[in-house]
Specification:
The complex is a heterodimer of chains A (372) and B (223).
Chain A: H1 2-14, H2 16-44, E1 46-52, H3 57-68, E2 72-76, H4 79-87, E3 93-97, H5 101-106, E4 114-118, H6 125-155, H7 164-178, H8 203-218, H9 220-227, H10 241-271, H11 277-295, H12 301-318, H13 332-337, H14 341-345, H15 351-365
Parallel strand pairs in A: 1-2, 1-3
Antiparallel strand pairs in A: 3-4
Helix pairs in contact in A: 2-8, 2-10, 6-7, 8-11, 8-12, 10-11, 11-15
Chain B: E1 2-11, E2 14-24, E3 29-33, H1 40-47, E4 55-60, E5 63-64, H2 69-72, E6 76-79, H3 91-101, H4 108-117, H5 132-143, E7 150-154, H6 162-179, E8 182-186, H7 190-196, E9 199-202, H8 207-215, E10 221-222
Parallel strand pairs in B: 3-8, 3-9, 6-7, 7-8, 9-10
Antiparallel strand pairs in B: 1-2, 1-4, 4-5
Classes of the chains: A mainly alpha (372), B alpha/beta (223).
């Protein structure tokens, strides 16, 4: 093993630029595309200006409520700037939260809390306006509830003595716990769609596609070395061709696996996305063993590279990792042959892992070609 | 001592080697001549253990190829007709690469000496910039790393200049005479064969080679 490591390091030293490039390609390409997509997504969100004339918890909460709304990009400005940008159509609409906002809500005064502006090109004005109205109504409702509870306490001589703030806080706590305003509906036997991840692309799906490509391109060493005349000399060394190939496969496997684990840590750190280590390990085995076995079928690297790109293109289109898979009609059989399915679904056993394991076993037990 | 008894090999209907027998003593250099397709390379590949013969026995230092198949190749050095080197490696790296895979460990100093002995001085030059003669010398040097008893050379001087050819010839002669190696050698260069070989075996039925060898004053042994 030590001898093969030394010889492999000699090869790696000669090709370190391409080796490092293809090792880091899935990680860097995934990060770049995710960040670019996020920036583009942000640019396509509707810009809405908010002017805060008072800085209270109520006004800040309203701002956060608007900020959380999907497809809205909120900008905090002063009134002159906001109106100037609205005139230039750089903002879709402007909402000015006036001084005394919190006090007015607490006094159940719902008039003239906010002034809104729109232009002739505004199209997000109505939904944002409705959102703000709904928020104000929700808050004034809470205030009314607190007022009623206080009145009832006095009427029935309650010993609880809840303060106004305590009642409002309790109301928010109940709302959060019950999650009354955010319920997902789904048909029986179909999974509920999550509203948490609003990214355009699945990070692990992207990584899986790029990883498949880089693994295949890294395993071109099988073709290059088997084609080299120098490999004939293995017959006169202590290693058979098969032992040499298997040990080198293991070195590549470990090297790429370490890069995969680094990618997992970086994705978690940057995007908060995690995946089980067992999933990565099995996907790594599948991708590396598949590339290794497929490379044995080729004698020309150009044809191998072309096939790798074609295969990855088909996988990326069909798997749903990059493009939505719904256009292929939700075919169950495609899920079965989709090599990314185990990685994305978190399953450990798939048609591919079983097939690759069988073919790898058959390759290992196949007899070496040398006579003596 | 290499002993070959009734060795036969055919490819389909074509009989390449037909019950050939010979033996070579340590320190002897044997040249194999014959027209293209006569079976020179096939014989070398069988003796190297790379091809299985149809029938016949081969023993090297009394060890049978059949009974010791895994160990026999550690006593064989094979110099292929092609330049079997890593082109992007230096001379040093090529030697170290194959030394790492060899059965025995050889110090880098000895590897360098092996190259120097055959006039290969460009230790740190990449193979791709070496001349044809230098590449041939390295091709030979790598085959000697594990100090084999039997050295099989398939046209080791093809396409190289006269000086390199003479240097390789002189090195092989010393290797056989001083170190007692058994050497089998194929070449189309009759001058070279006549000069360095103790015995010359003629393969195939073409009378041309018999005639040429007689003109050189050598008696070919027909296989």
């Amino acid at each position: 093993m030590k001898q093969i490591i030394t010889t492999r390091l000699m090869h790696w030293k000669k090709q370190w630029v391409s080796l490092v490039f293809w090792l880091l390609f899935p990680l860097l390409a995934t990060i770049c595309i995710t960040l670019i997509a996020a920036a583009l997504q942000d640019d396509t969100n509707v810009p809405v200006g908010v002017v805060l004339e008072e800085d209270t918890d109520a006004s800040r909460e309203l701002v956060e409520e608007v900020r959380r709304a999907p497809f809205i990009r909120l900008k905090l400005l002063n009134q002159d700037e906001a109106l100037y940008e609205l005139e230039k159509h750089e903002l879709d609409s402007v909402f000015v939260i006036h001084e005394g906002f919190k006090e007015n809500i607490q006094e159940d005064n719902r008039n003239k809390l906010i002034t809104s502006y729109q232009s002739d090109l505004s199209f997000a004005y109505q939904p944002v306006k409705e959102m703000i109205i709904s928020y104000v109504q929700q808050e004034t409702g809470r205030v009314k509830a607190a007022f009623t509870v206080n009145q009832l306490e006095q009427e029935y001589n309650s010993q609880a003595n809840w303060t106004f703030e305590e009642i409002v806080a309790k109301s928010k706590e109940i709302q959060k716990n019950e999650n009354l305003l955010n319920t997902d509906f789904s048909f029986p036997e179909s999974p509920a769609e999550t509203t948490q991840n609003t990214r355009l692309f699945s990070i692990w799906g992207l990584w899986g596609v790029f990883n498949l490509l880089s693994t295949w391109l890294l395993f071109d060493w099988v073709i290059k070395e088997k084609r080299s005349k120098a490999i004939l000399r293995l017959a006169f060394t202590r290693f058979s061709l098969k032992a040499y190939l298997i040990q080198n496969f293991l070195h590549y496997f470990i090297l790429i696996l370490l890069t995969d684990l680094l990618s997992a840590v970086i994705f978690y750190w940057m995007f908060g996305e995690w995946i089980s280590i067992a999933n990565i390990l099995i996907y790594r085995f599948f991708a590396a063993a598949a590339a290794f076995l497929v490379a044995h079928l080729f004698s020309n690297t150009f044809v191998y590279y072309t096939s790798a790109f074609a295969f990855v293109l088909i996988v990326s289109i069909g798997s749903g990792a990059i493009l939505p898979a719904s256009f292929i009609g939700g075919l169950a059989w495609f899920d079965l042959i989709n090599p990314l399915a185990p990685l994305l679904s978190g399953e450990y056993i798939s048609l591919w892992t079983v097939l690759i394991t069988i073919f790898a076993f058959l390759w290992i037990i196949r007899k070496d070609r040398y006579h003596a | 001592m290499l002993e070959v008894q009734s060795l036969s090999k055919s490819y389909g209907a074509k009989q390449i080697l037909d019950k050939i027998s010979f033996s070579v003593k340590p320190g002897e250099i044997v040249g194999l001549v014959g027209e293209n397709g006569a079976g020179k390379s096939t014989l070398l590949h069988i003796l190297a253990g790379l091809i299985k013969p149809a029938s016949g026995d081969i023993t090297l230092n009394s060890y049978s190829y059949e009974s010791r198949p895994k160990n026999i190749r550690r006593h064989i050095g094979f110099v292929p007709q092609e330049i079997a080197l890593w082109e992007n490696f230096t001379v040093n790296e090529n030697m170290v690469f194959f030394e790492r895979l060899a059965w025995n460990n050889t110090h880098r100093r000895e590897l360098r000496k092996l190259c120097q002995d055959m006039g290969l001085e460009k230790w740190n030059e990449p193979v791709k910039v070496l001349s044809g003669g230098m590449k041939r010398k390295l091709n030979l040097a790598i085959s000697l790393i594990h100090n084999p008893d039997l050295l099989l050379l398939d046209e080791p001087t093809a396409g190289i200049d006269l000086k390199s050819r003479k240097e390789i010839g002189a090195y092989l002669t010393n290797l056989a005479k001083i170190n007692g190696k058994v050497i089998l050698y194929t070449s189309h260069d009759m001058d070279e064969i006549i000069q360095i070989c103790d015995q010359i075996y003629c393969l195939g039925n073409d009378p041309f080679y018999h005639q040429v060898l007689k003109e050189y004053g050598r008696q070919p042994i027909l296989l």
